[in-house]
């Protein structure tokens, strides 16, 4: 018998900086995290780069990352589904390549 488990959703505030020198998760910023991407903020390219970067770092399909608010702004609210524990996003800097220390 196949048993479906409900996927956990994590809401994440992201401050996105497009046209940066590299794609990276910088670290905590205000009440969210700062992420830089090389893509320009044109035709959704920066949003696509953001989703691809998080998908790669979290090892989940990009379809599990959705921009809820802020499609045309630097401040975004994301819903990430299918990760075991959303709080782990902030407790495992090694997995997300944070530059700074999180305490």
Give me a quick take on this structure.
The chain is an alpha+beta fold. The chain is built from three helices and five strands.
Descriptive notes:
With 103 residues, the protein is of the alpha+beta class. The radius of gyration is 14 Å and the shape is globular. Helices cover 21% and strands 31% of the residues. A five-stranded mixed sheet has the order 2-3-1-5-4, with helices on one face. The N terminus is likely disordered. The chain has a single domain, classed as YggU-like (Conserved Hypothetical Protein Mth637, Chain: A), CATH 3.30.1200.
Shape: globular
Strand content bin: 25-35%
Corresponding CATH superfamily: YggU-like
Order of helices and strands: EEEHEEHH
CATH architecture label: 2-Layer Sandwich
Find the CATH topology.
Answer: Conserved Hypothetical Protein Mth637, Chain: A
């Amino acid at each position: 018998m196949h048993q479906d488990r409900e996927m956990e959703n994590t809401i994440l505030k992201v401050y996105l900086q497009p046209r940066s020198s590299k794609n990276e998760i910088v670290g905590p910023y205000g009440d969210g995290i700062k992420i830089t991407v090389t893509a320009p903020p044109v035709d959704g390219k920066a949003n696509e780069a953001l989703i691809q970067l998080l998908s790669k770092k979290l090892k989940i399909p990009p379809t599990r990352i959705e921009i809820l608010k802020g499609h045309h702004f630097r401040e975004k609210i994301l819903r990430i589904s299918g990760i075991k524990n959303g709080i782990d996003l902030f407790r495992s800097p090694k997995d997300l390549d944070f530059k700074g220390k999180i305490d």
